[in-house]
Amino acid sequence: MAGEFSIIAQFFDRAEARADIELGIGDDAAIINLPAGEQLVITTDTLNAGIHFPDATGPGDIAYKSVMVNLSDLAAMGATPRWLTLSLSMPEPNHDWLRVFSDNLFQALKMHQVALIGGDTTRGPLSLCVTAFGTVKPGTAMRRDSAQIGDVIAVTGTLGDAGLGLQCALHQRALNRIEHTGIVMSRLNRPQARVNEAIALREYCECAIDLSDGLASDLMHILKRSDCSASIDVANLPFSEVLLQECEEDERIALALSAGDDYELCVCIAPEKFEAAQKALRAIGSPLTAIGSITANEEGPEIDWRKSGHPYPNAKRGWEHFV
């Protein structure tokens, strides 16, 4: 049976010479060289089988998603992703599983020129802890505490697809067309971190968050940190053709607000900059949809949910651990 260090050597030590990595895998710690004049941005996420992904999820999808959810956090900060560490706990070292896992891990890393610089492997229930490192020039990070009254609230991409994919993965829902199932399952298992979109938005945006737990929960994080409220018109939420064809309107809205796992960006942009921001994203083939605005905080942070201007009482909260 393969030991810890042979697993690392066989599947994870694929270092390529880079000027920003003084010392990578193989020592007690890594040494990295920060780009001149940039700040270090760090994020970490734990992904547990049965909680963050269904038990039947394949190793390739687990690896790919573990990278992208962390890069999504860096994108929400406007950071350029650069390095990553991985701690992997697994019941037994299955070589076929590890081969597929590691190949897909490096495929995801390569998409954004990110290097694996260290980590750990151990025996235990299937669980991953990923820490991602990025850099940003001082004063350019997009922060949750930077929303201003009057800002346009907007989102990239479409919302709710991953939530519908989870229903399919758990056999709670059968879609009318088999190709639709493949699309939403891909959105669930292989989300795309909006790194390029974030870099394009840094010039126009000071406040952002990635949508991991559903719009209702994630937007509230911005409101609490920025001490403000929001008005959202659910009639403006962007949906894919799959959701438009497969779901009734209220179900689509509920998936967008509460299902999570979309990993789109929710941003707050000054009204006079919004058109330019939309144009910048169109230039890279990405939509940016206005869904509401930041309002004054009168009785504590809250979201005024509307539908075509009228009160919408059916809004649901998003995901939160231990609740």
**Numbering strands along the chain, what is their spatial order in the largest sheet?**
8-10-7-11-9-12-13
Radius of gyration: 20 Å
What is the CATH C level class of the largest domain, in words? Alpha Beta
Q: Report the sheet with the most strands, covering strand number, pairing sense and barrel closure.
A: 7 strands, mixed
Q: Tell me, what's the shape?
A: globular
Might you state the CATH topology name of the largest domain? Phosphoribosyl-aminoimidazole Synthetase, Chain A, domain 2
**Second CATH tier, the architecture of the largest domain:** Alpha-Beta Complex
Q: Measure the end-to-end span.
A: 41 Å
Detailed description of the structure:
This protein is α+β, with helices and mostly antiparallel strands. The protein has 2 domains: about 5-135, PurM-like, N-terminal domain (60s Ribosomal Protein L30, Chain: A, 2-Layer Sandwich); about 145-310, Phosphoribosyl-aminoimidazole Synthetase, Chain A, domain 2 (Alpha-Beta Complex). It has helices at about 5-10, 60-75, 95-110, 160-170, 180-190, 195-200, 215-225, 240-245, 250-260, 270-280, and strands at about 20-25, 30, 40-50, 80-90, 115-125, 125-135, 150-155, 205-210, 230-235, 265-270, 290-295, 305, 310. Strands 8-10-7-11-9-12-13 form a 7-stranded mixed beta sheet, with helices on both faces. α2 packs parallel to α3, α4 packs across α5 (about 180-190) and α4 (about 160-170) packs across α9. The longest helix is centred in the N-terminal third of the chain and has 18 residues, at about 60-75. The protein is globular. This is Thiamine-monophosphate kinase.
